[in-house]
Amino acid sequence: MANYFSSLPHRLKVQELGKCDFMQSSEFADGVKKLIGKKIVVVGCGAQGLAQGLNMRDSGLDISYALRQVAIDQKRASYENAKNNNFVVGSFEELIPTADLVMNLAPDKQHTSVVNQVMPLMKKGACLSYSHGFNIVEEGTQIRKDITVIMVAPKSPASEVRAEYLRGFGVPTLIAVHPENDPNGDGLEIAKAYCVGTGGHKAGVLHSSFVAEVKSDLMGEQTILCGLLQTGSILSFNKMVEKGIDPAYASKLVQYGWETITEALKIGGITNMMDRLSNPAKIEAFKLAEELKDIMRPLFIKHMDDILSGEFSKTMMEDWAAGDKNLLTWRAETGETAFEKTPAGDVEISEQEYFDNATLMVAFIKAGVESAYETMTCSGIKNESAYYESLHETPLIANTIARKKLFEMNRVISDTAEYGCYLFDHACKPLLADFMKKIDTNVIGKNFNASSNGRVDNFELVKVNAAIRNHSIEICGAELRAAMTAMKKIVE
Ligand SMILES: NC(=O)C1=CN([C@@H]2O[C@H](COP(=O)(O)OP(=O)(O)OC[C@H]3O[C@@H](n4cnc5c(N)ncnc54)[C@H](OP(=O)(O)O)[C@@H]3O)[C@@H](O)[C@H]2O)C=CC1
Ligand SMILES: CC[C@](O)(C(C)=O)C(=O)O
Ligand SMILES: [Mg+2]
Ligand SMILES: [Mg+2]
């Protein structure tokens, strides 16, 4: 099968990549009605499978799980996940023929195998959904023409899909209908009802395309969302220990620092995050971020180019064929880093101290969010999509690190995201070697103000504030956040 995006004429590539309409809440007035009384069968009960299934059942929908026979026989985690939550579980043969909607929530690497198994079993005119369009866009899978193919892609790790729903909110979601598979013309209505079932409509929904979702999702996860959080964690921790900061303190500052810093980002964008620093520290973080952006720009561009050309997916699929050799090696190596192996100390760190003693981490976030956004929007991805894939999702991933460090982040995200995260991290750390040589504890581990003379050049401060506030991501973000009226606080 050929890469679907690469096979499109240039005109359609541009059109699909730029598809992004912010949907009004009135468009969801029918709620889950379109799916009421319909049989919904989820394939796979892993991260997204369980979270989405729970939300949709709580929204009044009829959910059951089709698992592979071996998972049922061996009572694997997927079976236990579904059974312990009182869902009906069955084999593909038992459940797929009854389904009006089959939600394919197996890992991306299994999609071709899943589709090959479910397609002959699906009833005529049923609907097949994805939460990431990799299989359609990068593998070029063709689906039976009577089947409607939709995408409902939460811009969030699964744990937060459930947690935000329980908080009465949701996570921003991209919905799409595959142009090759909308035989009844009701794909969008099904996608909207599904999205309401997960709570996504409360946080903002973009009517997008499979192409735009895949290319932006891959870019976000490889760079700011996971790659740079991994690099920033390891480099920040190592630097503090090298300079004599207590490892237990350093471990805690990094593990919980991302969550605290990015909560400010979630509520009020980069402006609010930077405003949490003293004025001298803000100017320093701004300068560090500018330097980081200059150094990392070629790497961000390389990731975007490889994603657009299909080079990234080709390389990752080679690893799938090799039994995930690289993925498993890199996962094990991450587990051996000093940051992962050093438990967070039992020391009190106040909320403000996470900002004051981590100027460098704030700079990493600013540089990473802006670079990902700038690179995506320069490549034809629309601002709103780029915002969700950079600024909005960073706090949701940071929460996973607060729970159990990088292990937890890489466990919760998809294997596709994890693979791309390691690729970025391995290239980024050497790139930042010279930059890190100049870094001292004044910007990571200790309060910046203690080492500065406290003086601020007002002209410089005005310029810095204007540069932060006038960035396109801040303008786009303010509009999107204004629509998130039900957003709840995470860090009390
Ligand atoms: N993780 C996330 O937070 C996000 C994921 N996504 C997308 O959601 C989809 C699911 O990813 P994710 O939730 O991470 O997946 P997981 O790896 O967490 O879970 C996959 C589940 O699928 C089952 N499975 C594996 N192979 C098969 C197969 N051949 N047939 C049936 N079931 C199978 C596994 O169970 P068993 O091995 O026991 O059979 C497991 O329970 C992907 O498309 C991903 O890109 C989108 C947004 C975020
Ligand atoms: C961050 C990665 C992601 O795209 C996600 C949680 O949105 C994934 O694939 O896991
Ligand atoms: Mg994603
Ligand atoms: Mg992803």
UniProtKB/TrEMBL annotation:
Question: Which coenzymes or cofactors are required?
Answer: Mg(2+)
Residues reported in the UniProt entry to bind Mg(2+) 1: 217, 221
Q: Which InterPro entries match?
A: 6-PGluconate_DH-like_C_sf (IPR008927), 6PGD_dom2 (IPR013328), KARI (IPR013023), KARI_C (IPR000506), KARI_N (IPR013116), NAD(P)-bd_dom_sf (IPR036291)
Q: Which Pfam families match?
A: KARI_C, KARI_N
What EC designation does it have? 1.1.1.86
Which residue ranges does the record assign to the KARI N-terminal Rossmann domain?
Answer: 12-208
Q: What class of enzyme is it?
A: oxidoreductase
User: One of this protein's GO BP terms?
Assistant: L-valine biosynthetic process
Pathway it acts in?
A: Amino-acid biosynthesis; L-valine biosynthesis; L-valine from pyruvate: step 2/4; Amino-acid biosynthesis; L-isoleucine biosynthesis; L-isoleucine from 2-oxobutanoate: step 2/4
SUPFAM superfamilies per UniProt? 6-phosphogluconate dehydrogenase C-terminal domain-like, NAD(P)-binding Rossmann-fold domains
Annotated substrate binding lies at: 278, 414
Task: Name a single GO cellular component.
Answer: cytosol
An example of a GO molecular function for this protein is:
metal ion binding
Query: What region holds the KARI C-terminal knotted domain?
Result: 209-353, 354-487
Q: Do you know which NCBIfam families this protein is assigned to?
A: ilvC, PRK05225.1
Q: Which PANTHER family match?
A: KETOL-ACID REDUCTOISOMERASE, MITOCHONDRIAL (PTHR21371:SF1)
Write out the similarity annotation: Belongs to the ketol-acid reductoisomerase family.
Q: What is this protein called?
A: Ketol-acid reductoisomerase
